[in-house]
Amino acid sequence: MSTLLEQLIEAFRVLPGVGGKSAQRMAYHVLERERAGGQHLAQVLAEAVVRIGHCARCRDFSESEVCHVCASASRDVDQLCVVETPADRLAIEQATGYRGLYYVLQGRLSPLDGIGPRELGLDRLSARLAEGEVRELIIATNPTVEGEATAHYLAQLARQQGVTPSRLAYGVPLGGELEYVDRGTLSHSFGTRSEIRE
Amino acid sequence: MSTLLEQLIEAFRVLPGVGGKSAQRMAYHVLERERAGGQHLAQVLAEAVVRIGHCARCRDFSESEVCHVCASASRDVDQLCVVETPADRLAIEQATGYRGLYYVLQGRLSPLDGIGPRELGLDRLSARLAEGEVRELIIATNPTVEGEATAHYLAQLARQQGVTPSRLAYGVPLGGELEYVDRGTLSHSFGTRSEIRE
């Protein structure tokens, strides 16, 4: 029978990137200095895992049936940006001035893991594109092998419904130094160079 | 009014070493893949911050009035090891074969922060040494300026009560390379070298 302190340390290990040593540090820190904060975390966490579900429109996390972005009247309904995860959606929302809507796959096509179009809700996405409101499908899956395969599939889906598919630009990051950019990125960036116009 | 998800991300920041980005990753990770684990963490955490207090004998964390180490009949009562934090106590317990008892200061002398002998419970420690059971006070405070000052104070306290004070050995860590050891440690280690006997 383990003590409550041991149970707490073990429970912290459910968090990403938290091993035994960090979990121990977290438990001690909360007990030594942050009891009120710890109590608040426990309460919000307990509420969140029960109350936060998925938006019926975009599949992002949402407390309500439809999330506040999808429910907003001020977003452009003719642009739909497809991302793999809620974190990707948040990153785009924070970094860009994009005013369209999103669609969160909550994954990527990965047949070996049993993740096909149905698991990503692509049937619902297809139906939505068929409605005719969306004119551009901005595909923002990650530039990995699986992300690219997913992007290819999505582009086909869009064309079938008469929607223009587009893809983010990939290349050397701004502020990056060519010397330290990985080969694949540099090669891709070199191959897709564009003419400098006046 | 922030959403529950935003509140959850904010709440995770109470943990040590967790900034905005890690907090976000934790929230998404729990919601995406670890709802049961998150629920368990919330429950154990809520219970721990309320039920875990301090042992009346050694001041370490304990669910009961007296912790299981202090309550154990198989520990040597003539040795008392003083450490700064519960984490230090755990480290010694796990690494060594020490069978004596502990005293956890829950801090170190730091007059500027208003932490004096009373805040560290040194009056109770003194009274305990006066009982005459303890014969050796093993001082295992950290080798920092404040830890050294605390060690000095504790050694005096021990001598006043006729108890032998001792201090951990400090020097080059085993397996360490001289080249990479910091100057202070190397200098101390050089100055406190000992004769090699047959």
Main structural class of chain A = alpha/beta
The interface involving the most residues is between: A-B, 47 and 47 residues
Instruction: Write down the overall geometry of chain A.
Output: globular
Largest sheet of chain A: 4 strands, parallel
Question: What oligomeric state do these chains adopt?
Answer: homodimer
Q: What is the overall number of helices of chain A?
A: 8
| CATH class type of the domain at 76-167 in chain A | Alpha Beta
Helix-strand string of chain A: HHHEEHEHEHEHEH
Rounded mean pLDDT of chain A is 91
* Portion of residues within helices of chain A: 40-55%
Radius of gyration of chain A: 21 Å
Summarize the structure.
Chain A is of the alpha/beta class.
